[in-house]
Specification:
Helices cover 49% and strands 11% of the residues. The chain is of the alpha+beta class. Strands 1-12-11-4-5-8-7-6 form an 8-stranded mixed beta sheet. It starts with 21 loop residues before the first strand and ends with a helix.
């Protein structure tokens, strides 16, 4: 059922109150769109040019979905999405002589992509798609009009279009009104929408996090009721949505929605498990809330834009706690070795979600190392311990610094300040040693060829053992120099013999 239009929005009186094509206006402030004076908005010239080419070929073309939403929010980028009544083969005939490059990766789903003057364009034939209960892949059926195409969109704020050329605004489901209210609703019933594509339940959480919007109560209810339906969606699609959510500006909002609706139980159960039951006789901090705070604090320390590895490590750093929780006789709760257990759980979950191997390795390593600093105490680590800390972190050292600092969520300002000072001291010591000893590339004073020459041995296990001995010596005592390292190696070899 269509809702009434926002104040001042033109209505097509011949359509029974439904919105017909009207001039496209941009709202300078989408927070109060209904009260904001309107100004005529022109879409990118490249879009208008493409619209003329489709019109001249006898087809319709419209800017659609997130491109229209982001234009109204004043943040349109260089990715433009279009929809058309032309079939993919006909789209190719129009794009090839016009675009700088064209690709057909999504042509099986009706999408043709291309680049033009720095803009990435994707043109998709009007369509509808749904899932079979036992299938992971959508069935694609082409449509003949834009109204059918828009009703199959995930949310009303993504179900707006601008016809080209001409810039007529098409909004049959009140997307502009919902954009002004900062709310996510579905064009039809949420049950029908989520049944067609269950991934839309994760998209609701993702858009809530990206746009800082609220999700309508009926949508939340459907997400909760239909959470099991996410099981037919492939791990790769789930992973990609989780990544977009985690990399958003407000991931806490989206993650909390996943947990509250039960979706996290199906896609990231380790997060839900952090809501540990509290015992009135035993006290420990709320691990779930602590984790969300650590994630936000890690985001605050990012210097070069969103860092997926750091954010995943922050989100997963304590997932080993539920499995290692112990109630001690003195009233405390312990989580011994939760970092080691958590690293293994991280590897398992990320593998199931089909993350790249290097991502799995890096995030698991950060989870494993996130408590190492707390052995530093009051700065009593030897130079050898500092070298090992740097060696074990390797290229992840900068991220480990940020994760460790983010892991302090105590409300005790004195304790927090003391931890910060101690870590400042550790970083200062690392900086001094790095300058003196090139810690970033710690290696023995002798390489494999030199070892073979000194010991007069061929390549084999002995060389590896000797190399490991010299590396440990280097970590323990710092740079020895070639002469001292040679003497130490000969002494070790004599003892081996």
């Amino acid at each position: 059922m269509l809702r009434s239009p926002p104040c001042g929005s033109p209505v097509n009186p011949g359509a029974g109150g439904a919105r017909g094509p009207v001039p496209f206006y941009v709202v300078p402030n989408a927070n109060n769109a209904a009260q904001t004076p309107k100004s005529r908005h022109r879409v990118a010239p490249v879009a208008e040019d493409l619209g003329r080419r489709f019109r001249d070929a006898g087809f319709q073309l419209a800017l659609v979905g997130g491109s229209v939403r982001d234009t109204l929010l004043g943040r349109l980028g260089h990715d433009l999405d279009f929809t058309t009544d032309a079939r993919p083969e006909q789209v190719l005939k129009i794009l090839r002589p016009w675009a700088d490059s064209v690709w057909e990766v999504g042509i099986a789903f009706g999408t043709v992509g291309g680049m033009k003057d720095g803009y990435q364009v994707e043109v998709t034939t009007y369509r509808s798609e749904s899932y079979d209960r036992t299938s992971r892949k959508p069935d694609v059926a082409y449509g003949d009009n834009i109204e059918e195409d828009l009703v199959r969109r995930d949310f009303t704020v993504n179900a707006m279009a601008v016809s080209l050329p001409g810039n007529d605004f098409i909004d049959p489901h009140g997307g502009r009104e919902d954009l002004a209210a900062r709310v996510l609703r579905t064009p039809g019933t949420p049950e029908a929408s989520f049944s067609d594509d269950p991934l839309r339940m994760l998209r609701a959480a993702r858009f809530a996090a990206q746009l800082d919007f609220e999700v309508a109560p009926e949508v939340v209810a459907a997400m909760t009721e239909m959470a099991d339906r996410i099981g037919i969606v492939s791990a790769e699609r789930i992973r990609d949505e989780l990544n977009k959510l985690i990399l958003s500006d407000h991931p806490r909002k989206g993650l909390r929605l996943l947990v509250d609706t039960g979706l996290a139980d199906r896609v990231l159960p380790e997060l839900s498990a952090l809501r540990l039951e509290r015992d009135e006789h035993f006290r420990h901090k709320d691990v779930y809330e602590h984790t969300l705070t650590v994630l936000e604090q890690a985001i605050d320390l990012e210097t070069d834009g969103p860092d997926l590895i750091l954010r995943l490590a922050a989100l997963l750093h304590d997932i080993g706690k539920p499995r290692t929780r112990r109630f001690e006789s003195d009233g405390r709760v312990s989580f011994h070795h939760h970092e080691m257990v958590g690293a293994k759980m991280t590897k398992t979950r990320m593998t199931q979600l089909k993350y790249p191997n290097d991502h799995i390795k890096d995030v698991s390593r950060l989870v494993e190392l996130h408590l190492r600093f707390h052995g530093y105490g009051s700065g009593e680590w030897t130079d050898s311990a500092v070298r090992r800390y740097v060696r074990d972190a390797g290229p992840l050292l900068s991220r480990l610094h940020k994760l460790t600092r983010s892991d302090c969520t105590t409300r005790n300002k004195r304790k927090a300040a003391a931890l910060a000072r101690t870590y400042d001291e550790l970083e200062a010591r690392i900086a001094v040693l790095q300058e003196q000893e090139e810690l970033d590339a710690i290696r023995p004073d002798l390489d494999g060829n030199q070892i073979m020459e000194v010991l007069d041995v061929p390549p084999g296990p002995v060389v590896g053992k000797a190399y490991h001995y010299l590396l440990e010596l280097r970590l323990e005592k710092g740079p020895l120099g070639e002469e001292a390292a040679t003497a130490a190696l000969r002494e070790w070899w004599a003892a081996q013999s």
